[in-house]
């Protein structure tokens, strides 16, 4: 139906674009975040109504049917996913978005005429395909359906260069004027040659996404998800150029730009560079800090001892890490915190920017367990508080509290911002074993005289400590 | 539309994108990424336009696949972001009985 005039269409698309800007703005603060997201959804609804009312659409019943199917798939998947598995679901959503953009550009190729449109088609097909297959690999890594460690095969870098060059060649063919292609004396006409080049671009882009993400190590995967997210945004923006649709252009660009900033911020919080994340595995990892487990003595103790330390403290800072997340121990942790607070002990959660699997992931997990967000303190805020804390309780974290990041130049984690738990009067580690953390280096703090260790699964240990605290 | 007009939109949108997310605390990085992820699901508009113009079966099938993928991105993206954010609540608002009771 063409019920809306082009002026009304443009005006309503503008309203939708403003909704998206307000959504991103609102998502920047805890108070307004949820409303911001709903405003974004409102913008999407407006845009969808406009496209149906402003365009002559064939196949209407089929289109609406497929949208209904997609909704029926997406809503239960999003509502039922466990919060610990949420990062990979986001990765998957990002991937299908990139794939959709690539397919839209592929189909619009035959309607394109200008040089700008051809450029945009080539860009969208390649970047959209990279985002699609790269996201699928990040999903498989996070879901642990494939190894999370970096995967590099002999000649990997050379293959990437080769595949990228084929992709570039396909892009050049898409962009070349039809008269030039016709002048080459090929058996096919120019339009067919371009169509083949676009399909080649789609395949090569998908291959490139796989090759680029395979060498990324588990802990760096979130940065790559964010990078691919920004890539999908730019692909959507370029498809807006292809279709001459300003809403797609503006929305895609917003995501591309904000996603780039977010990627840089995440990398900074992890003490990594974005390029190092993607290509670090090719340089050969730093061998500094070999994993030879030392024979030095540690002080390991029982849940009762830990309960006494906690129960007679005035201030406790909890440092939750990935171990807490995988053990699904956030509810027990929250209950322990409430029990201690009921005894008049001040409990603060010190959250490292990359605790969990994504920046902010730990906050989501603890929020799920009803820990109020006022009790969650960010690194810069909590670091000065360790000096006055009686006990720092480290649950399933290691590298993010390793003082080597400050004191040992040459250590793989040197320069990474850490939580200063060594400043607390007593440090308690709940750990599965003496195995080093993801960075594969020892933590000298474990051997410090003021450190107490309680070995075991985070959830079991916390349950025992909670029981003992209640009996004090 | 004029290429220069589209370029203008693009450049201005880049700056708005940079501006709205700078200085966001790391607490909200995950929901922000998820929300941005939902917004690029608006490629559904493009997929619907292409599907509505398809005049042969192959084109229609590819376009409908694009519609399906874009719908999952758009709808799933907003729903999962909302789910993350409904858990952010302050000390003041007491935890009410939530669905599921996943304790």
TrEMBL record, chain A:
One of its GO terms (molecular function) is proton-translocating NAD(P)+ transhydrogenase activity. Its EC number is 7.1.1.1. It holds the Pfam family PNTB. Its main location: membrane. Keywords: Cell inner membrane, Cell membrane, Membrane, NAD, NADP, Translocase, Transmembrane, Transmembrane helix. It is an enzyme of class 7 (translocase). It comes from the Bacteria. InterPro entries: DHS-like_NAD/FAD-binding_dom (IPR029035), NADH_DH_b (IPR012136), PNTB-like (IPR034300). Coiled coil: none annotated. It is a multi-pass membrane protein. The transhydrogenation between NADH and NADP is coupled to respiration and ATP hydrolysis and functions as a proton pump across the membrane. This is NAD(P) transhydrogenase subunit beta. It comes from Microcella putealis.
Automatic annotation (TrEMBL), chain B:
One of its GO terms (biological process) is NADPH regeneration. Its main location: membrane. It is found in: Cell inner membrane. GO terms for cellular component: plasma membrane. GO terms for molecular function: NADP binding; proton-translocating NAD(P)+ transhydrogenase activity. Residues 7-89 form the NAD(P) transhydrogenase alpha subunit C-terminal domain. The chain crosses the membrane at residues 6-24, 36-54, 60-81. It catalyses: NAD(+) + NADPH + H(+)(in) = NADH + NADP(+) + H(+)(out). Keywords: Cell inner membrane, Cell membrane, Membrane, NAD, NADP, Translocase, Transmembrane, Transmembrane helix. Its EC number is 7.1.1.1. It is a multi-pass membrane protein. It is an enzyme of class 7 (translocase). The transhydrogenation between NADH and NADP is coupled to respiration and ATP hydrolysis and functions as a proton pump across the membrane. This is proton-translocating NAD(P)(+) transhydrogenase. It comes from Microcella putealis. The lineage of its organism: Bacteria, Bacillati, Actinomycetota, Actinomycetes, Micrococcales.
């Amino acid at each position: 139906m063409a019920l809306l005039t082009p002026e009304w269409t443009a005006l309503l698309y503008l309203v939708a674009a403003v909704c998206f800007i307000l959504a991103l703005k609102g998502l920047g603060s805890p108070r307004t975040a949820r409303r911001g997201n709903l405003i974004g959804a409102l913008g999407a609804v407006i845009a969808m109504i406009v496209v149906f009312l402003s365009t002559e659409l064939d196949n209407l019943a089929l289109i609406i049917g497929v949208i209904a199917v997609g909704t029926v798939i997406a809503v239960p998947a999003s509502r039922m996913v466990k919060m610990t598995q949420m990062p990979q679901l986001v990765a998957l959503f990002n991937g299908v978005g990139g794939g959709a953009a690539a397919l839209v550009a592929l189909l619009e190729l035959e309607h394109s005429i200008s040089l700008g449109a051809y450029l945009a088609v080539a860009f969208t097909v390649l970047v959209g395909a990279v985002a699609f297959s790269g996201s699928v690999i990040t999903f498989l890594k996070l879901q642990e359906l494939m190894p999370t460690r970096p995967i590099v095969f002999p000649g990997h870098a050379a293959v990437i260069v080769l595949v990228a060059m084929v992709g570039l060649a396909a892009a050049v063919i898409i962009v070349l004027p039809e008269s030039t292609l016709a002048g080459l004396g090929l058996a096919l006409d120019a339009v067919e040659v371009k169509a083949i080049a676009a399909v080649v671009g789609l395949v090569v882009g998908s291959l490139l996404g796989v090759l680029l993400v395979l060498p990324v190590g588990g802990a760096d995967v979130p940065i790559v998800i964010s990078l691919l997210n920004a890539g999908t945004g730019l692909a959507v923006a370029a498809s807006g150029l292809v279709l001459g649709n300003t809403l797609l252009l503006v929305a895609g660009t917003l995501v591309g730009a904000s996603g780039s900033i977010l990627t840089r911020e995440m990398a900074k919080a992890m003490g990594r560079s974005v390029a190092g994340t993607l290509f670090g595995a090719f340089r050969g990892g730093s061998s500094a800090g070999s994993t030879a487990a030392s024979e030095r003595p540690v002080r390991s103790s029982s849940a009762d001892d830990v309960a006494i330390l906690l129960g007679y403290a005035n201030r406790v800072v909890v440092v939750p890490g990935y171990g807490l997340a995988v053990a699904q121990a956030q509810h027990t942790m929250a209950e322990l915190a409430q029990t201690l607070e009921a005894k008049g002990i001040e409990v603060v959660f010190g959250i490292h920017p990359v605790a969990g699997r994504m920046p902010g992931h730990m906050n989501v997990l603890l929020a799920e367990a009803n820990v109020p967000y006022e009790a969650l303190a960010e690194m810069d805020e909590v670091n000065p508080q360790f000096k006055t804390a009686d006990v720092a309780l480290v649950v399933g974290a290691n590298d993010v509290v390793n003082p080597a990041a400050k004191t040992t130049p040459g250590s793989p984690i040197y320069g990474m911002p850490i939580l200063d738990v060594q400043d607390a009067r007593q440090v308690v580690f709940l750990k599965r074993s003496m195995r080093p953390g993801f960075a594969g280096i020892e933590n000298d703090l474990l051997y410090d005289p003021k450190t107490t260790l309680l070995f075991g699964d985070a959830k079991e240990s916390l349950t025992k400590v909670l029981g003992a605290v209640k009996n004090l | 539309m004029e290429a220069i007009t589209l370029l203008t939109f693009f450049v201005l949108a880049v700056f708005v994108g940079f501006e709205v997310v700078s200085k966001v605390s790391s607490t909200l990085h995950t929901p922000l990424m998820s929300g941005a992820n939902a917004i690029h699901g608006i490629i559904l508009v493009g997929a619907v336009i292409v599907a509505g113009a398809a005049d042969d079966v192959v084109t229609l099938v590819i376009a409908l696949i694009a519609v399906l993928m874009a719908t999952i991105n758009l709808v799933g993206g907003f729903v999962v972001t909302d789910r993350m954010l409904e858990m952010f609540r302050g000390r003041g608002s007491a935890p009410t009985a939530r669905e599921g009771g996943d304790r």
